[in-house]
Design a protein that fits this description.
The structure is a homodimer of 395-residue chains.
Chain A (H helix, E strand, L loop, with lengths): L4 E3 L4 E4 L7 H8 L2 E6 L3 H4 L2 H11 L3 E6 L6 H11 L6 E6 L1 H13 L25 E5 L11 E6 L5 E6 L7 E4 L9 H19 L6 H15 L2 H5 L6 H21 L3 H12 L4 H22 L5 H14 L10 H18 L15 H7 L11 H9 L3
Parallel strand pairs in A: 2-9, 3-4, 3-5, 5-6, 6-9
Antiparallel strand pairs in A: 7-8
């Protein structure tokens, strides 16, 4: 029995090595005044920013550049939205990691409003965004958040009263996701690892989600297949291999589509408070919790007996993929879900994913984190003690 | 090596048994003046039209109903578009088979224009549609064309100078595809068979297309998995089983997404002239050619030797699915692609798919048909004699 499901719009996708060359034609179709949102210095350092500017000038396009060098706060979005309200921007282009593509998305959505983004953030403000925005093109330079395909932008206020909350509306799905794996070649190993683990987590959490549909399942499995053999090479000896980078870019894009339509689980349910209270990259939180949380979920599903079989089957599917098996039998569910957990533990070591303690998180912070955590669409219920155990194991 | 690909927007999808109940809220979000495009009498006969009208009245929505009882001609679209140009329609809803959902799509796109649709049809007119349209909700009542997810509307002029050509623009993807399998329960066996074969053909042609991407592959395989065990039951002893109808509706929806993004092959390349020159349902053309054309493609790929392996592998994947195998070895490619061809031949018999002769097509028509046929993205080149052989085998 297939349960009813909703599947939201996805962006127009332009995917593949070298597709950045298509950006200027796209922009021209949408207008001639462009706001470029970029991150810190990496786009400049790689020479790509100069190339982009030359092309914009050649096309006689008017452009402004704003830099968002860290995870975007409400203040940053408000400042830039305010600055461009009078400038009649035709199109916003966000080129960078997940923070930048989220910042571009939020700025494109806040230019047509008149007040602060804080009013519209889920769980923070009281207003609902009306979906009005400036057309938006997302150009990711990391294979991580999948923000190029999602309808939300994560906004962070870091500190003791901090939060990571979303501005969300179906219309905020970017008009175009232009995914050029050549832009990812220069991404350093630590960021490649953290982003890759985030994307993998999103695919795995969406695939095992209680809100998964056959459509999200098909796309999640396709993304996992491409990512599984390429995360470690991309962070080690194959960082410059374009096919490796294409595989991760594909997995990341699909992770965005899947999370937007199937939701996520406890890892992202923990990433929100951890990232709000502490200054720690989102990909590191996901990467560091991935194996531990998956192990906990598998244990809890096993303990459920027959009721947990369907959830366990999902983890076993992915484990079987790692083992090179496509068809699995019920008797092998535990074997293959164990292979998955073991593989993720090896990845955590091989990729040197930081434990949480490096970012100043201690045992005394764990209760507060757990109190603010959400299960989201985790495939099995977890109690506070279970969640605490996951976090403690990664301090 | 993953080649670059484009993947267009898809509609907001609302899928599942009973989802028709969500239609009225959707309409209200878009406005209060609704143009309903329906087919012949089946929606009325099933009692669903009365139910829909009651609900529209309860919501105080203004509505008009137009009926398009056959495959839409340019004249039909022009007449209805003209009629509603002054009426400030807020939303068009097309409820019916593929002809109706295409007609609704075309009317929603032609109301904002001032001239005839003929001017905008590919290969017929000289103008390019600008993408402007009235918001459009597609509600299929058959599991066939996948029109609820595509960016084109097929318009037919039947006769010696006839054609079946598309109005096409990325913006013509319906804003919403509302797919309620309960609406399909009353579809009679012959129409269920023809539509099911059309959807299956679309999935298979998109999966084996030279323009397929990993994304379309993942979705095509998911659609094929659900369709493979349900087409025959839906036309025989399980016509009233909602799970069987859901599976076909799912496959049909995904066939639309896949064809829009991967293209099709020789079967649809023949369906265009055959359907233009003769009054024959599109699903029958596809269904009757499916086994014969697949057999020809498999033979030609085999004859290519190593070069044809990749194409043959695609057919073998689907054959292996029928045989209950997920992983296949190179040595089994011929075995499993033969299983596929054999299965499709059995379906053609079991489902009593009409040969072309029933619709007045004779051997002397074949050259003209073949001259107007297109290979589209067929996985292997075919000569005129090969194409002729396919058609002759199904007279």
């Amino acid at each position: 029995m297939m349960l009813p499901f909703h599947f939201a719009r996805i962006p127009n996708i332009i995917f593949g090595a070298g597709t950045l060359a298509e950006l200027y034609k796209l922009i021209s179709q949408l207008g001639n005044k462009v706001l470029l949102v970029i991150g810190g210095s990496s786009l400049k350092d790689s020479g790509k920013l100069d190339e982009i500017e030359r092309n914009l000038q050649d096309k006689n396009l008017t452009y402004w550049i704003v830099s968002v060098p860290s995870e975007p706060s409400p203040e940053i979005i408000d400042t830039h939205a305010q600055e461009f309200r009078e400038k009649e921007v035709d199109v916003v282009v966000g080129i960078g990691g997940g923070s930048v593509t989220d910042a571009g998305k939020a700025i494109s959505a806040m230019i047509p409003q008149e007040d602060s983004i804080t009013n519209y953030l889920e769980g923070v403000g009281t207003k609902t965004h009306n979906g009005e925005k400036i057309p938006y093109i997302a150009v990711p330079t990391t294979s991580g958040t999948g923000s190029e395909a999602t309808k939300n932008a994560v906004i962070s206020e870091i500190g003791p009263d901090g939060f990571k909350k979303s501005l969300r509306h179906d219309n905020l799905v970017p008009d175009y996701a232009l995914v050029d794996a050549e832009l990812m070649i220069s991404c350093p190993p630590d960021i490649t690892a953290a982003c890759g683990m985030d994307a993998f987590t999103q695919l795995l959490e969406a695939y095992t989600s209680t809100a998964a549909s056959p459509m999200t399942d098909a796309l999640a499995i396709s993304g996992l297949k491409y990512m599984k053999n390429n995360i470690v090479p991309a962070c080690t000896d194959k960082a410059n291999n374009i096919n490796v980078r294409i595989a991760l870019a594909y997995g990341s894009l699909l992770s965005g589509i899947c999370l937007a339509n199937a939701g996520l689980g406890i890892i992202h349910g923990l990433a929100s408070p951890i990232g709000g209270f502490f200054d720690i990259p989102h990909g590191v939180v996901c990467g560091t919790l991935l194996a531990a949380a998956t192990k906990m979920n598998v244990e809890k599903l096993k303990a459920q007996g027959p009721k947990g079989m369907l959830g366990l089957k999902k983890y076993a599917d992915v484990g079987a993929m790692f083992a090179g098996k496509e068809a699995i039998f019920e008797k092998d569910l535990i074997k293959y879900s164990t292979i998955l957990v073991d593989t993720l533990e090896v990845w955590t070591d091989t990729l040197h994913i930081d434990p949480l303690g490096i970012y100043g998180i201690t045992a005394k912070d764990v209760n507060k984190i757990v109190d603010h955590a959400s299960l989201k669409n985790n495939p099995v219920p977890l109690g506070k003690e279970d969640i605490k155990k996951i976090v403690l194991s990664r301090l």
